[in-house]
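chain below, 384 aa
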Amino acid sequence: MTELSRRECMALGIGAAASLAGLPASAVEIAPSLDALARARGLRFGSALGAGGQSDEFGDPRYRSILLRECGILVAENEHKWPFLQRGPNDPHDFRRADAMVDFAEKHGLLFRGHTLLWHKPQWLPRWVNEHDFGSQPGKEAERLLVNHINSVCKHYGTRIGAWDVVNETVSEQTGKFRETVFTRHIGSEVIDLAFHTARAAAPHARLVYNDYMTWEPHSKTHRDGVLRHLEAWLKRGVPVEALGIQGHIGTENSDSSTGFATGREEDWRKFLDEVKGMGLKMLITEFDVHDKGLPADIDKRDRAIADYARAFLDVTLSYAEVEQVLVWGMADHYSWLQDRWPRPDGLPKRPTPYSKDFKAKALRQAIADAFRAAPGRGQRTEL
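prediction:
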């Protein structure tokens, strides 16, 4: 890790930065980290990070210091996804980028989540999988490819990763139905059963999660209803789903036509959470951020609106003891995936994360902290 200067530590205003630069903790103001506040309520807090490519926040020492200051859990933004691990059907899995992040987490006593073994959406499968010749027994070949991939990844990490998003985004937000892929064509909807049972055999210690992006906004009702139907069916078939990952990409609807925040509907959201709770599942907020595409340009007004909306969502969601983690999808604005998606009409950078481009804590960081303080307590957790 590149050593930070005294000036950088003081600008960051965080105790972890001081220790990283060899300064005494008293050199900077120390406040409870977000993970410390979460742990006081039996929750955990963490963040995604990327390594290499266009989003190399892992290579940024100031970003790493924020992670070490605030987080108890890390997750790879892309580096554990199939297209990043295996470039072709005859290529071995390449874990170098992902391993570097897991090594970093272990060195500093942080937990690591796995995301994701099967992103069941055609455009996010490896191109070679979509174009693969499945031969005269396509069902067996499709099963072989998927089982080999899941086994390779889970066995490579063993107990180093304590939870996996086994399947990501298999329910269509438009129809609530099961997405069609090369795997459904050759295996059927039982591809989900296969993925979870394979993951359970390969990682018997790990929590197995279904992850999706249904939200509390009105436009998400069809998506929410579809997720509930599929979860219920999987559990009835004995699929070992143990938790639901609620991505938590809230705020401006993720489309080019949106002009502002949708209105979160607490009653409908509580009904959804009640249904998941009734199935005996735990819940995690896995990819939290607040999309501000349609909000005013004024930074103070925009940050206040983002914080208020986030606080409202978190207060409702964290009121359920079954919700055990909050992970943001990035800690600093300039590294957020939302900067390259659905640009603001005024061309200004978005402000969807807890820290600004210059690594200053924003109102959103305070909103998350206050939501943790207000959350009801649950049993203490140190694992995933």
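The longest strand covers residues 282-291. Residues 191 and 230 are 13 Å apart (CA to CA).
thats it, cya
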